[in-house]
Write a structure and sequence with these properties.
With 171 residues, this protein is of the alpha+beta class. It has four helices and four strands, in the order αααββαββ. The N and C termini lie far apart (53 Å).
């Protein structure tokens, strides 16, 4: 699709968050999504943004509602900046109760992306776990014929794994 940023945002807001959220929450999402999109513009050769989680969810006109459109209109041209430049306005559906500092996720610590408490306990993705069978671990790590153990070497202040050592199943 080729469309202007404001038209694009009507779908993004309705695709990224529940359309039933209060107007102020939708407006906040519109500002964050606009900032993110504008900050990414021109970085790729054939397109600016993907329509999935790699950029922002864009499901087209069917994700727009009068309320999401109003949120975009009421925040028209508003963006988030730090020292006069667009910020990297990343967002997520759930953080597990605490966000991660940008320096523990990417190469550079940004002064405005620091770890903070999050109040996402109501989301279905607040906490999750996954278990793998021995056969599945062999599929996932064929070059080492499976996993005997995973040793956690470094944990971030928010409790996330930064470095881990995978111990081979055999030998």
């Amino acid at each position: 699709n080729h469309l202007g940023i404001e038209k694009y945002l009507g779908s993004v807001v309705g695709s990224e968050v529940p359309k039933t959220w209060p107007i102020e929450a939708l407006k906040a999402q519109a500002v964050a999504a606009r900032t993110y999109a504008l900050q990414k513009m021109g970085r790729l050769k054939r397109y600016d943004l993907k329509a999935n989680e790699e950029s922002q969810i864009y499901l087209g006109i069917e994700s727009e509602t009068p309320t999401t459109t109003k949120a975009v209109e009421r925040t028209r041209s508003l963006v988030l900046t730090h020292q006069g430049k667009l910020i990297n306005a990343v967002f997520h559906s759930a953080s597990g109760g605490r966000t991660e500092s940008s320096g523990d996720v990417w190469k550079k610590q940004l002064p405005y992306l620091v770890s903070v408490l999050d109040y996402d306990q109501e989301t279905p993705k607040h906490q999750w776990a996954i278990r793998f069978s021995e056969d599945r671990l062999i599929e996932l790590f064929p070059e080492i014929e499976g996993v005997k153990n995973i040793d956690l070497l470094e944990i971030s202040p928010s409790g996330r794994v930064l470095k881990a050592k995978i111990v081979r199943l055999k030998g």
